[in-house]
Amino acid sequence: MTLLSSFWRLIISLLVYSLAFGSFTSCQRTFFPTAIPLAVRSPYLSVWENASNSSDIPNMWPTGWRMDSNYGWQGYVKIDGIAYTWRGAQVSNATTLSQITITPTRTIYTITAGPMTLNVTYLSPIEPGDFVRQSIPFSYVYVDATSNDGKAHHLNVYADISGEWVSGNRNAVITWNSTRIGNSIIHSASQTSQTIFTEASDQAEWGTLYHAMPSNHGTVGDMTGSDQACRSWFVINGTLPNTHDSQNRGIDQNFPVFALNVDLGTISQTQQPAMFAVGFVRDPAMQYVNLGGNARNRSLYFESRYSNVGQMIDDFLTDFPNAQKRAEELDNRILGQANTFGSEYADLVSLATRQVYGTTELNIAQDASGTWNQSDVMMFMKSIGDSNPRRTNPVETLYAAFPMFMYIDPTLGVPLLEPLFRFQSGPLYQNPYAAQDAGAKYPVGQGSATAHTQRIEQSSNMIIMTYAYVRASNDTKYGRNRFPLLYNWATYLDSQVETTDTSELSADQESGNEPNLELKGIIALQAMSLLASALGYTDRATQFSNSSQTHAQSWYSRALNPSNGQMLGTFGQDNSWSIGYNLFADVWLKTGIANSTILNAQSALYDTLLKSQQNAFGMPIDSNNPQNGAASSSWNMFAAAIAQNSTAKNIISRIRSYASLNSTTGVFAALYNPKTGATSSGQARQVQISFLGT
C-alpha cells in the first residue's frame, strides 16, 4: 500500500525550511528546526528565529529568512515588580525555555518566568475561503500566564518592535505616529523617502509598519523613543507613560522602537491573553504588466473591504478570539491526518505550511472607474530561495506547492494561475509552450515571451495544475476559459514529448533525454484528456487519451531498466537510475500511466538507495544529477508519496533528520547534499510542502 492510498485527502510533500536546533538542556524537545517561524504572512513580513547551535532562545533578535539581518523585537513581563524577558536580546532576569511547539499556523514557546509559566504564541493565520482575511499581512503574538505556586501575582506585559522592520537599509530615515482607533492603540512607521516596487536586503522599500494592541483589555500604555529609553522605562516602572519621541531619524540612530504594554492586574491565571499584532502594509502592493507594456497597480485584497488600514487593524484585533479558534481548528484538521502517518511527518508539515503561504500575497485591481474589480483577483508568489529570489509565480515552484493549496484551500487555484495565464492568452504571446514565470522583478508581474529551455517541463506543469484545480473545485467555467491555451500547450507536448534534444531541460536543469521529464509530459497529456472530459469536450478527451497512451507505450519500452523495471536516469543507459518523482502527479490525479509494477519497482529502488548509510538525509534526484548528487527535499517527498508505507516512512525520517540537522543554519533549503546535509541552494524556498487532495 502506498502513502497516497493510505489517506483520503492526505497531506504529502514538503520541505523548504531547514535545519536544526542546537542543544539546550533546559528545553524538552523531539524536533526543533534551525529556523522557527514567528511572523510569516507575506514575502515582506517574514520574521524567523535563528535557532541553530544556540542556547539563547528566545533571548535573541529574530531575523529575516536569510538569517543575515536582525529585526528588533523585545518582550518583557513584570511579575510582582520583577522584570523577565520573553523575547529579545536585551535581557532582564533569566527565564527558562521548557518547550517549543510548532503547528501549521502557530509557534508556542513555554517559558518559566519566576513564579509564573508563560505560553508565548506566534500566530500567522491561514484563512481558507476568506480572501479578505487571507490577504491581511499581519500576525498575532499573545502571552498567557499561569501561576506555578498557586498564588496570585501582579502581571504586566510589554512588547516593542524597532525601525529595522521598516527597511533593509539600516541608514534609512523613518517617521512614525501613534493613534487610537476604535478599541485599538496603533503605532505606525515608514520611510520618509520611499521607492515603490523596490527592495533592499529582501525588505520592501515602501510601505508602513504597524504595531498594535487592544485598548479595552486591562490597563494599557504606549511609548515611542529609543530602544534604551522605552525598555528601561518599563523595566523600572512596569508601565509606559504614553509619551512619544517625534524626532525622525535613521533606523540605526538611537534605534527608535514602538512600545506597548498592558497591566493585567493581580491574577493566578490569565482569562484573556496579552495580545499584540505586527504587520507591514504596502499600497499599491504590486503591479501587473501585460506584454504590450500596459501596467496596472494592484492592492492587497483587504483594501477592497475596508475604508482605511486603521479600520482593518481594529477589526483584526477584535477578531482575535475567532482567529485563534479558526487556527486551532485548521491545525487540528491538518495534523489529525498527518499524525495518522506518524509524528515525524506531522513535524515536517507543521514546519513547512507557513513557509509556503508566507511567500504569497492575494491582491486585486480597480477598473477604469476606480471600482474594485472582484473578477480581477490574483495571488502573487515570490520565489524566495531561488537563484533569482524576485521571480513572480515561478511555474515549477508553484507546481511543487500546488497540492498543498488544493488540500487547504482550492479557491486559491485561480488567483495563483491567473498571473501566468493572462499574459500568455493575448496575441503578443506566440510561443507554442508555457512560460517559466510571470516576471522576474517581484512585486512587478511582467511576463515575457522570450524563448526558454524548459518547454516540456512548464507546459506540463500548467496543464497538470489546471486539471488539479478543476478536479478539486469543479470550476468548469475557468477550465473552459483557459482551455484554448492549454490545448496549444498539449498539442506542443504531443509533438515534442519524446524529444532527445539536449537543450530541452527539466526543472532540475537536466537534459531532455530523461525518462522522468518525458513521463511528466505524458501524464500532462492524460490530464488534458481528463480535463476535456470534465468540460464535456469528448473529441478532445479521446484525442489526448490516445496521444498519452501512444507515448506511454513508447516510454515503457525505453524508460525502464530491463533487469529490474526501475526508471532510468537517461534513456539508453541501463546503469542509470532516477527516483522518478514525476510519478507523483500520476498517482495524485489518477491519470493511470504507471501501473503497480512500476511503482513497486521504484519503491524497491528507494529501499536500495536508503540502505546506503551515506544517504543519511534522503535520496539523490538521480544517478546523473549535475549538482554533485544533490537531494531535493520536495522531490524526496513526492517519491515518498508513491512508495510502500515502510519505505515512505524511511524517506520521511531522513528528511526530518535533515530538517533538524544542527550543523546547518537558515531556513529549510530545497537542495542539499544527502550525505552531509550541506545546503546547495533554495534556502527558505516554498517547494518544500505539498498536500494531497486525492
Write the layout of secondary structure elements.
Layout: H1 3-6, E1 35-42, E2 45-50, E3 73-79, E4 82-87, E5 96-102, E6 106-113, E7 116-123, H2 131-134, E8 138-147, E9 153-162, E10 173-181, E11 184-191, E12 199-200, E13 203-204, E14 208-214, E15 219-226, H3 227-237, E16 243-244, E17 249-250, E18 256-267, E19 274-281, E20 286-289, E21 295-300, H4 309-318, H5 320-338, H6 343-357, E22 360-366, E23 372-381, H7 395-408, H8 413-424, E24 444-446, H9 455-473, H10 476-496, H11 515-535, H12 538-559, H13 583-589, H14 596-611, E25 631-632, H15 633-642, H16 645-659, E26 669-672, E27 679-683
Parallel strand pairs: 15-16, 20-24
Antiparallel strand pairs: 1-2, 3-4, 3-9, 5-6, 6-7, 7-8, 8-19, 9-18, 10-11, 10-17, 11-14, 12-13, 14-19, 15-18, 20-21, 21-22, 22-23, 25-26, 26-27
Q: Would you give the CATH topology of the domain at 33-282?
A: Beta-galactosidase, Chain A, domain 5
Radius of gyration: 26 Å
Q: List the quaternary state of the chains.
A: single chain
Distance linking N and C termini: 15 Å
Structural class of the helix and strand makeup? alpha+beta
Describe the structure in your own words.
With 694 residues, the chain is an alpha+beta fold. The chain has a domain of 250 residues: Beta-galactosidase, Chain A, domain 5 (Distorted Sandwich). It is built from 16 helices and 27 strands. The strands form six sheets. It has a nine-stranded antiparallel beta sheet with strand order 5-6-7-8-19-14-11-10-17. Helix 9 packs parallel to helix 11, helix 10 packs antiparallel against helix 11 and helix 11 runs parallel beside helix 13. The longest helix has 22 residues. The two termini are 15 Å apart.
